[in-house]
């Protein structure tokens, strides 16, 4: 199997979280997922950028927040683009907001921070030294991101115009709701993981699943529109226990929605995420 080489434009490619104490946060995720961190430099305003790796592959990052940011810490999803400036223009033209104009993040990427028409924030990621997560779907790494929104039709229109996404309604256990596809993505994956389409079909995945890049899900009571990040784990209960031991909070106790056992956790500074253990039986 060839080593994966980045992500096509239109695919969520990178995640990070801005935290008031990056070192303490790095210690938490190191204990939880086994990540090791390397300081990749400081931005012009003094903000730090710590890149986490697992087995020598880059998987996520922790940064310090900008001085004018007052929002609570959260995990951020960045979507790969060929040109951040052009993508930011599409965001505006499609009714979204560019909250932070395109800028060079050290020598790692050119990025922008945006919001869709309902206010859900997401990043644009024009790769440079970081092409994206180098390992995904393995235990201790990013599994997928999902948009929580009350306006599925509006989201379908907006993200379709900006990134070329298409959607299907599916219901297969834990994977239910609106499946987001990027046409042609399966062809890209087959280069590095031959036979992936057939394995998905053998498992009973819905048509087009190999092109899936995200999910759109309804908002829960009290939620505001946002992008949620899910990590893959081997043992959901063990991860929940470890999170508590290191200062995190288990917001939703481990529960089963076959073929997944899932939990919702907040890290010590409040950034929420989901952890899923997959057991196809």
Please give a quick description of this structure.
By secondary structure, the chain is of the alpha+beta class.
Set down the secondary structure blueprint.
Layout (H helix, E strand, L loop, with lengths): L11 E7 L3 H12 L2 E7 L5 E7 L2 E7 L11 E6 L3 H10 L3 E9 L3 E7 L5 E7 L13 E9 L2 H12 L2 E7 L2 E7 L3 H8 L3 H8 L8 E7 L7 E7 L3 H10 L3 E9 L2 E7 L5 E7 L3
Parallel strand pairs: 1-4, 5-8, 9-12, 13-16
Antiparallel strand pairs: 1-5, 2-3, 3-4, 6-7, 7-8, 9-13, 10-11, 11-12, 14-15, 15-16
Overview of this structure, please?
With 281 residues, the protein is α+β, with helices and mostly antiparallel strands. It has a domain at 12-127: 2,3-Dihydroxybiphenyl 1,2-Dioxygenase, domain 1. The chain has helices at residues 22-33, 84-93, 152-163, 185-192, 196-203, 236-245, and strands spanning 12-18, 36-42, 48-54, 57-63, 75-80, 97-105, 109-115, 121-127, 141-149, 166-172, 175-181, 212-218, 226-232, 249-257, 260-266, 272-278. The strands form two sheets. It has an eight-stranded mixed β-sheet with strand order 2-3-4-1-5-8-7-6, with helices on one face. It has an eight-stranded mixed β-sheet with strand order 10-11-12-9-13-16-15-14, covered by helices on one side. It is globular, with a radius of gyration of 18 Å. The mean pLDDT is 93.
């Amino acid at each position: 199997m060839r080593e994966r080489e980045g992500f096509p434009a239109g695919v969520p490619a990178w995640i990070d979280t801005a935290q008031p104490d990056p070192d303490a946060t790095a210690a938490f995720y190191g204990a939880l997922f086994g990540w090791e961190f390397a300081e990749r430099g400081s931005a012009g305003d003094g903000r730090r950028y710590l890149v986490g790796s697992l087995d020598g592959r880059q998987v996520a990052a922790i940064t310090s927040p900008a001085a004018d940011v007052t929002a609570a810490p959260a995990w951020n999803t960045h979507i790969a683009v060929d040109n951040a400036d052009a993508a930011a223009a599409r965001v505006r033209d499609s009714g979204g907001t560019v909250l932070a104009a395109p800028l060079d993040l050290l020598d790692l990427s050119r990025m922008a921070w945006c919001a869709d028409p309902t206010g859900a924030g997401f990043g644009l990621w024009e790769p440079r030294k970081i092409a994206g997560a180098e390992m995904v779907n393995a235990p201790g790494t990013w599994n997928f991101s999902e948009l929580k929104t009350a306006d599925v039709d509006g989201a379908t229109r907006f993200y379709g115009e900006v990134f070329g996404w298409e959607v299907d309604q599916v219901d297969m256990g834990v994977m239910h709701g609106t499946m987001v596809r990027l046409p042609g993505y399966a062809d890209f994956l087959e280069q590095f993981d031959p036979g992936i389409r057939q394995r998905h079909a053998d498992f009973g995945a819905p048509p087009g699943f190999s092109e899936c890049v995200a999910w759109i899900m309804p908002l829960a009571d009290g939620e505001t529109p946002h992008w949620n990040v899910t990590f893959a784990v081997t043992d959901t209960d063990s991860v929940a226990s470890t999170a508590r031991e290191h200062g995190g909070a288990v917001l939703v106790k481990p529960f089963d929605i076959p073929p997944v056992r899932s939990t919702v956790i907040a890290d010590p500074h409040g950034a929420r995420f989901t952890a899923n253990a997959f057991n196809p039986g």
